[in-house]
């Protein structure tokens, strides 16, 4: 059964990512989800909206600020890190692998938040995959530009056709046990220095 | 011979130098280990990754394993300190506005205390990197008997300390290098005290691992400790210091320029934009005065200042594994002190003490207020 009353706070600087997580939570049936961009407002936010769960990226450096608030707050209702409750090892490891850390306000039962976490974990995984695909695409595009420049240099300097220039890069790479992009990068760097 | 892979987490600060040097200068490889150093975004993340088994070992703030073992903080766990990675190395700095008001001399505890007492404000917001840190313990120890304004402690990631003071989110900070020097270089803060002005020999970072992992992996523990010990010795050899700065700046692990690494390594601290550098003795130690020895009494001091009772203090002592240090580093050539506890704060000067090889010089380890802390069982 979905618990509509749970109040969820997402700490995420990137607005698009934040919206993405909030949307996923609302879609899954938690309308009381809100986001803040940085932790300078966190203490006030926690005091004003008393969230039941705070979701934050494991890699967010602001986690140390959140920990401070969790241990130093006067309030009896302190948020504690999800990982404290290691009764569900699979869930803990899944959260860690997806990069989700959650802070749960004292006393909240694991079974009440399990599905919130599952939703968050799934969304974090999708976002992480999208990010790595984006990175890979950017890298591939960058590599292609470098290889094109290296081919251009060889075509000019050695009067080769484009195809011959590429074959030369490939052969050099194979002979040296290196990647084509590494050979191309070395050539471009050398040409920039000499040029 | 194939190398054993060992994963070690660290937070990019100058005092993780023994780990970087152990890897980059081949001390780890000499011991048959491929040291996989994994930068961590925060102390909380380092703790979680270590406690949940995703790291074999980690560079932790010295109070962290004790807090975890005492069940304090976000994630309790049985974590031990194999050795101390660094002694001292933190710094207390204030915003330019506060610096103008207190007009203190760098390193002069009395003038800083008097300046803070005379501040025309009802609260002082001080940034520290983490709740369970020597930074916070030293700050609270320094201010507890002073008539300073009410202090509000705020955890701020070290790399963001300069921004936080520039943006007016905090009035002062207690931080590890290079982030104090970085704030000065940006012209947003002035440094007033090195941590050693409060406690002359404060264990700052430790090499930590899970209690069970240590028991199950004696060979890995031995090789890791020997490699880190060799690196610490290398780092504290005066003629190596310029090269050390170069290696730390060039390695991908810190991603910091040499001019920000140099102050901590050389002990030449520039307190403010228009000041010349001041030399701070024992600003940051890796090997001198048996800096890496995990004194049980250091653990006890930390536990006491985290609010532990007698039982908690005993529990904390057991986390600082001077037993393993003796077994592993004695045969590796380390000089071993006669006991594993000392009276903290007793030595006002460098003092020769009994040791296995007979040339151990310890201290000073005094506190600014000359208090001493004796945690031996009969006390």
Folded structure, characterized:
The complex is a heterodimer of chains A (195) and B (379). Chain A is elongated. Chain A has 195 residues and is an alpha/beta fold. The model of chain A has no long low-confidence stretch (mean pLDDT 86). In chain B, 36% of the residues lie in helices and 21% in strands. A 6-stranded mixed sheet of chain B has the order 2-1-3-10-4-13, sandwiched between helices. Chain B has a 5-stranded mixed sheet with strand order 7-6-8-5-9. Chain B folds into 2 domains: 196 residues, D-Maltodextrin-Binding Protein, domain 2, CATH 3.40.190; 133 residues, 3-Layer(aba) Sandwich (D-Maltodextrin-Binding Protein, domain 2). At the A-B interface, α3 and α4 of A face α3 and β7 of B.
Protein topology:
The complex is a heterodimer of chains A (195) and B (379).
Chain A: E1 8-11, H1 15-27, E2 33-36, H2 42-49, E3 53-57, H3 63-72, E4 79-81, H4 89-98, E5 100-105, H5 110-158, H6 162-176, H7 180-194
Parallel strand pairs in A: 1-2, 1-3
Antiparallel strand pairs in A: 3-5, 4-5
Helix pairs in contact in A: 1-5, 4-5, 5-6, 5-7, 6-7
Chain B: E1 4-10, H1 17-24, H2 27-30, E2 33-39, H3 43-51, E3 57-61, H4 63-69, E4 79-88, E5 90-95, H5 96-102, H6 109-117, E6 123-128, H7 134-143, E7 150-155, H8 161-166, E8 172-176, H9 179-185, E9 189-194, E10 203-210, H10 211-216, H11 218-235, H12 241-250, H13 258-266, E11 268-269, E12 278-279, E13 284-285, H14 296-305, H15 310-319, H16 322-329, E14 351-353, E15 360-362
Parallel strand pairs in B: 1-2, 1-3, 6-7, 6-8
Antiparallel strand pairs in B: 3-10, 4-10, 4-13, 5-8, 5-9, 11-12, 14-15
